[in-house]
Amino acid sequence: MNVNKPSVSQHDAHRRQAYDEPLWWGLFSAGGVCFAVIMPAVILFIAVLLPLGLLPAEALSYERASGLLFSIPGLLFIGAAVCLPLFHAAHRLRHGLFDLSLGNDTLNKKVMYGLAALLSLLALGMVVAGMLN
Amino acid sequence: MSTDHLQTNHFQTKHISVKRYLPDSSAEPYWQQYELPVDDSTSLLDALNHIKEQLDSTLSYRWSCRMAICGSCGVMVNGIPKLGCKTFLRDYEGEIRIEPLSHFPVQRDLVVDMEIFLEHLAAVKPYLIDDNPVKPYDPKAPETYQQSPEQLARYKQFANCINCGLCYSACPQFGLNPEFLGPAALTLAHRYNLDSRDHGTKQRMTELNRHEGVWSCTFVGFCSKVCPKHVDPAAAVNQSKVESAKHTLIALFKG
């Protein structure tokens, strides 16, 4: 048992608490839930009911759709349907890269979550810009 | 094969290939094939015992209870971690390849060194931690250690682990990083965290909330698939992630 006792400093390094991982995982699980709950409804309305003509024609007319999107609920919708799933995907990809031993995790983390954050800002920024117009 | 038609008088010959490793005579492992008579009731452990007793006494493997409770006879069967005593040769056609459990250092033939697994188990303090100042036998003691069936049900499934180590052989993350506490140890920690008599969650949290704790798990779920006692370690680890995230959040606000 005494053979490979790590030194004290090494031991402490091992006990280091994970501070960022809970955050990434929180975004990952929130993204998964949002995607699973919201996307089927979106597909049902926009890709099934609307083309089949089962919704009134003016339900998603340009004026109505932009009115819905460029509002606070629209902003929240984009956050839940685009931003959180982006972080979900980034987390999956990062861990996939780790599993395949590709790249190094510190860099992968920055690239993946950085991309997710950038695209999220872009999406939210466009909604905000539309609201201000 | 359906269990309705099991026969014990219907012998046939099967081939088993065992990955041998005898460090005294050869530095490299090699495959050795054995041919033995089996019937529908022959377990893999029976087959290994037959080889040891009748064919080749140099074969080494671990076993004890032969009824899936001691957790000693874990091996890889065609690449899948299994208990030898719970695996029946009637379910296998063609060649059967037996290897020592993956991700552990091999000592000899099918015997692996489980030291690191035991260290991970010990690290999560898998016992009741009681900070009640009043001990049992004290006349002032409250009715300690009582537990309702509902309180028992919360952790009962996670208490069925037999420490066979199959989940560690199934876990790709443990394969990549042996410092990862791994499915069984994290499940046992969760089992005690869920126990109403326990007050050790805070102490265990420092172990769980590390990169080598719950956060190395990527929810592959193979651990739960290979578990011979249906403990479902993947569920336990991912429930622990929620607890760990809450713990981090609370620690953040407390400063």
Folded structure, characterized:
The complex is a heterodimer of chains A (133) and B (255). Helices cover 75% and strands 0% of the residues of chain A. Chain A is mostly helical and 133 residues long. Chain A has one domain: 3 helical TM bundles of succinate and fumarate reductases (Up-down Bundle), CATH 1.20.1300.10. The model of chain A is unreliable at 1-10 (pLDDT under 50). With 255 residues, chain B is an alpha+beta fold. Helix content of chain B is 33%, strand content 14%. Chain B contains 9 helices and 7 strands; from the N terminus they run ββαβββββαααααααα. In chain B, the strands form 2 sheets. A 5-stranded mixed sheet of chain B has the order 2-1-5-3-4. In chain B, strands 6-7 form a two-stranded antiparallel sheet. In chain B, helix 2 (115-123) runs parallel beside helix 6 (183-193) and helix 6 (183-193) packs across helix 9 (233-254). At the A-B interface, helix 2 and helix 4 of A face helix 5 and helix 9 of B.
> What is the H/E string of chain A?
HHHHH
Largest interface, with counts of residues having CB < 8 Å to the other chain, equals: A-B, 15 and 18 residues
Shape, per Cα inertia axes of chain B: elongated
**Radius of gyration computed on alpha carbons of chain B:** 22 Å
Multimer state: heterodimer
The unreliable regions of chain B are none
**Strand share of the residues of chain B?**
5-15%
CATH topology of chain A: 3 helical TM bundles of succinate and fumarate reductases
N-to-C order of helices and strands of chain B: EEHEEEEEHHHHHHHH
- Considering the protein shown, what is the CATH homologous superfamily of chain A? Fumarate reductase/succinate dehydrogenase, transmembrane subunit
Which percent range fits the helix content of chain B? 25-40%
Mean of pLDDT of chain B: 92
Write the CATH architecture name of chain A.
Answer: Up-down Bundle
CA radius of gyration of chain A = 21 Å
Total number of beta strands of chain B? 7
